[in-house]
TrEMBL record:
PANTHER family: ACYL-COA DEHYDROGENASE (PTHR43188:SF1), ACYL-COENZYME A OXIDASE (PTHR43188). Residues 42-134 form the Acyl-CoA oxidase/dehydrogenase middle domain. Signal peptide: none annotated. This is Acyl-CoA dehydrogenase family protein. Keywords: FAD, Flavoprotein, Oxidoreductase. Residues 147-294 form the Acyl-CoA dehydrogenase/oxidase C-terminal domain. Its cofactor is FAD.
Length: 301
């Protein structure tokens, strides 16, 4: 589930970047092929030294050079980048300090990708470290309608809502595994689902999943109505990521020692939850987004 969501989510980030930041000609050039799966895109925003702070401390830069642009810097944790046909790279203009977006095709001189190894979560997802070493692209690859960070923010708002749904899916999967296990596993002559403490775990898990599902359904309704804002998406991400952590922890507990074995499945959910908790804005950063919205006061430093 997390693999599929990460693939489609990353592809959606690239698609949305072009749809929101591209000219009519650029949309026609890239979007139909993406819809038909003839081209795979990636989204390059996060950097090795900056995830949450990238909006204020973006180190990847671009500078005008004749009829083109030279991009320098690195992007990290970029899903799909090891096999994508192109990546939307966000960089800070050295002259104006404005954020600009570029479509950089695989194989462009100065552009290289290294697969990130050693992950405990989302192990099947292809995340890459992108290095841009004076990578030159023509101006036709610059997203012509980008309005600085506002365009990035609009793209992230949509994907943050998607990750909130991912938290629900991961929690649901863990609950279903734990329920089935409790109905079959026998200890002390009984199925463990007959013990009160196990039923207590399952009831709290179901309550959390139900509440999470209600929240993300409302989130999708707001999106359909064109009323989704940053605080809505951030609140849903905060809530579902935290509740997902609790649900999966209870599921692993129900499995006892078997919960750490890959063959029983719940360990994968347990590990993947940690990725969900951290990406598309850590829960701390999303909390500050919501806090600013409800108080009118910013706690960002």
């Amino acid at each position: 589930m997390c693999l599929r969501r990460s693939f489609w989510g990353t592809r959606g980030l690239a698609f949305a970047s072009i749809a929101l930041g591209g000219s009519a000609e650029q949309k026609q050039r890239w979007l139909p092929d993406m819809l038909d799966m003839n081209k795979i895109g990636a989204f390059g925003l996060t950097e090795p030294e900056g995830g949450s702070q990238v909006s204020q401390g973006m180190r990847t830069t671009c500078r005008r050079d004749g009829d083109g642009w030279v991009i320098s810097g690195q992007k990290k944790w970029i899903g799909n980048s090891t096999f994508s046909d192109f990546t939307v790279i966000w960089a800070r203009d050295e002259e104006t300090n404005e954020v600009r977006g570029f479509v950089v095709e695989a194989g462009t001189p100065g552009y290289s990708v290294e697969k990130i190894q050693g992950k405990i979560a989302l192990r099947m997802v292809e995340n890459g470290l992108i290095t841009l070493d004076h990578c030159r692209v023509s101006d036709e690859y610059r997203l012509q309608a980008v309005e600085g960070w506002d365009t990035v923010s609009e793209v992230l708002r949509l994907t943050r809502a998607g990750v909130a749904w991912q938290g629900v899916g991961c929690a649901m999967g863990a609950y279903e595994l734990a329920l089935a296990y409790a109905q079959e596993r026998r200890q002390f002559g009984k199925r463990i689902g007959e013990f009160q403490l196990i039923q207590n775990h399952l009831v709290h898990m179901l309550a959390d999943v139900t509440a999470m599902l209600g929240m993300v359904m409302r989130l999708s309704h707001l999106s359909d109505e064109g009323r989704l804002d940053d605080a809505h998406a951030a609140l849903a991400k905060v809530h579902t990521a935290a509740r997902c952590r609790e649900v999966v922890a209870r599921a692993r507990e129900i499995f006892g020692g078997n919960g750490i074995l890959l063959e029983f499945g719940v360990a994968k959910h347990f590990a993947d939850t940690e990725a969900i908790y951290s990406y598309e804005g850590t829960n701390e950063i999303n909390t500050l987004v919501v806090g600013r919205a409800i108080t009118g006061l910013s706690a960002f430093v």
